[in-house]
Design goal:
- The structure is a single chain.
- The protein is an all-alpha fold.
- The chain folds into 2 domains: 39 residues; 80 residues, Cytochrome c-like domain (Cytochrome Bc1 Complex, Chain D, domain 2).
- 64% of the residues lie in helices and 0% in strands.
- The chain is built from 6 helices and no strands.
- About 5% of the residues have low confidence.
- Bound molecules: heme C (HEC).
- The site of heme C has 27 residues, from helix 3, helix 5 and helix 6.
- Heme C binds next to helix 3, helix 5 and helix 6.
């Protein structure tokens, strides 16, 4: 009896030691994994404008710069090239071509530049509203129409 009791106690202690050593190994391993994860972290983190960034990111300083850049970057010609050229350079879907000065002169005489700009903003027949430049303001569309029609040169 006594012998059996001692044996089972020894066995229990053995299990306990085994348990502790397993737990120790697991903990040591997870600590090591944490260290590795920390070492693998990038030195800086990329933070895009409009995104919520990690604390310490450069969102506050980069956002205004990007906003300024997009305002300053507006050019009637650039916008025309990006949004309008595919139709107005080719005459696609019956779009009056930019080169067709006679058309634009006659059209301006017919309804006036203001009405032409309004048509460009609202869309007319196969001409999509704002020529698909959803971010263009009315004023910017007006500038692009002047570029397209050559009105500013007249
Ligand atoms: C998907 C092709 C397409 C795109 C893109 C497009 N247009 Fe047009 N646009 C047309 C067509 C077609 C017409 C002729 C509509 C009509 O009079 O029936 C037109 C007509 C116009 C007119 C003449 C309106 C009038 O009353 O005579 C202006 C100005 C104009 N577009 C400006 C623009 C500008 C500015 C852009 C770019 C921001 C643009 N368009 C992009 C197809 C396009």
């Amino acid at each position: 009896m006594l012998n059996l009791g001692l044996k089972s106690r020894v066995a229990k202690i053995g299990l306990l030691v085994l348990g502790i050593s397993i737990a120790g190994t697991v903990m040591a391993q997870s600590a090591r994994e944490q260290q590795i994860a920390q070492r693998l972290q990038p030195v800086g983190s990329v933070c895009l404008a409009g995104e919520a960034c990690a604390a310490g990111g450069s969102a506050a300083s980069s956002t205004p710069a990007v906003a300024q850049a997009s305002t300053a970057a507006f050019s009637a010609q650039g916008t025309y090239d990006q949004y309008c050229a595919m139709c107005h350079n080719t005459g696609m879907a019956g779009a009056p071509r930019r080169e067709d000065a006679a058309h634009w002169t006659a059209r301006i005489e017919e309804i006036g530049l203001g009405a032409i700009v309004t048509n460009a903003i609202n869309g007319i027949n196969a001409m999509p509203p704002r020529g698909m430049c959803a971010t263009c303001t009315d004023e910017q569309i007006s500038e692009v129409v002047e570029y397209l029609s050559g009105a500013s040169a007249q």
